[in-house]
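cron nightly-structures :: item 1 of 1
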Amino acid sequence: MEQLYDRLKEEKVSCKYFYQTYQDGMEPVHGYLTNLKSDEVAKRCFEAMMKFLKNE
């Protein structure tokens, strides 16, 4: 997820990445992306995510 966030920043997509542990101290296997502020930003995020997943 962090690599995806880095790719999104390269594509000038405005979003935030955060990663936190659970209350019991265990760590999740991925972080989260937040703050996609509009449909256009979400569309750009999706396009960048698909490029990342296809290793383009």
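cron nightly-structures :: done
The longest helix spans residues 39-53.
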